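Minutes, project check-in
Item: structure for the 169-residue chain
Input as provided by the requester:
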Amino acid sequence: MSLRIIAAAGAILIATGGIANADDRRHGYGPVPGAFFMEELDLDGDGRITRGEFDSHRASRFSDADTDNSGSLDADEMSKAADVRREERRARREAAKKARMFSRLDADKSGTISPDEFSTPADKAFARMDRDGDGVVTSEEAAFHAGMRAGGRHGKHGRYHRGGPDSDK
């Protein structure tokens, strides 16, 4: 693949943010598909992106990437701009993940996490690991739980999957 094609593809991605939301949508988690695109490009907040807003965003992205103000992007500027976008996406995903975690823990939606709310997931995890319900997690129960977390619950036939090659069921 020629450097021209790579540069052109990179320029398109920088101009449009073409992959900005791809990772956020996997498996139905994260923001609504397109939400970030709308948030970033809908400058007047009317829920629509005009051609002017789109062109303004593209020009701003190009200007930000053109660190030497030459009016064109070299390979180093393209690479750095891609790194910046990647970090922005990572930070956005991490912030969304933390917000979802807080929301799940804050059962009464008070905006704070009580000791009971904080303990609930751990209590449920302990109960899942304590397969025989005797109040003690043995090394076998912990190993079973670790195998389930490694893929057994998702249909993969790992070592500790019920019905797998090394199971007793």
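Outcome recorded: The chain has two domains: 3-105, 109-169.
No further action items on this chain.
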